[in-house]
Design goal:
This protein has about 190 residues and is an all-beta fold. It has no helices and 18 strands. It has a four-stranded antiparallel sheet, with no helix packed on it. Strands 5-6-7-8 form a four-stranded antiparallel sheet, with no helix packed on it. Strands 9-10-13-14 form a four-stranded antiparallel sheet, with no helix packed on it.
Amino acid sequence: HAMAYDAARGKVVMFGGSDGNALLDDTWEWDGAAWTKVNAASSPPARHSHAMAYDAARGKAVVFGGSAGIAHRDDTWEWDGTAWTEVIVANPPPARGSHTIAYDAAHGKVVLFGGADNNGYRNETWEWDGAAWTERQVTNEPSPRASHEMAYDAAHGKVVLFGGRDGNAYRNDTWEWDGTSWTEVIVANP
């Protein structure tokens, strides 16, 4: 499943995943005391290994990609607290799962990195501005990987990426995205 905190509504939003037997397409919200299933009129198709982030500039949770069995997805959906809307874009990132996205508040964009598809691990950087995905051409970027994590560091104005795996190797490296380039941060005890 994937989750994000909807700051405008003060709720955590969770979508999809797997219960071990089937893929899910349900939406749940956490208000700090209880989970409530939301009966939305429409929702993204069932999936797992997708990513979600809250886009504070637009007040919407954004879901991208994921997997439906062995098929990977390249669709973008937004949750406004009432309804899911698929945003049809001309050039989305290639279909993938096990990627991650984070909202870059300093630049007002959702950042996507990595993931995997049927051809292997990916290491492109994409940004979502609410209307289009744009691939950022950078020369120094993290290696291809999946199952990593990213979060926005408001104190430093950067998106931080940690770890993941590429094949059978697990990584413990730390990278920062400043809206233009990735920089590896060398730490003594990662």
